[in-house]
Design brief:
Elements lengths: L3 H7 L4 H12 L3 H17 L6 H7 L5 H12 L3 H12 L1
Length: about 90
């Protein structure tokens, strides 16, 4: 992935300016915004038939399933396993 410093260089801003403009525009830091997108992608991936949490974690660039579980719980208020179980129950 692209680092914040690299992204700032691409758009011809300092990292601090990029951070400030990002917060003004999206209401979140670039890192928080990217994590939100990764968690949304995890939700979508977990809804696919035969979804496996460790595969989803790896595919989305988390170092392991534990890291995905930590961030997922922080953003979604439940673990990926609980999300997966609830989704499967709603489909029946």
């Amino acid at each position: 992935g692209v680092s914040i410093t690299e992204l700032a260089q691409i758009v011809h801003l300092s990292p601090r300016q990029l951070h400030r403009k990002f917060v003004e525009t999206f209401g979140a830091s670039p890192q928080a915004f990217i994590m939100k997108l990764r968690i949304q992608a995890a939700c979508e991936a977990l809804q696919r038939e035969g979804a496996n949490i460790s595969d989803v974690a790896r595919d989305l660039g988390f170092c392991d399933q534990s890291a995905l579980t930590h961030h997922f719980h922080r953003h979604m208020g439940m673990t990926p396993l609980k999300y997966l179980q609830q989704f499967r129950l709603r489909r029946v």
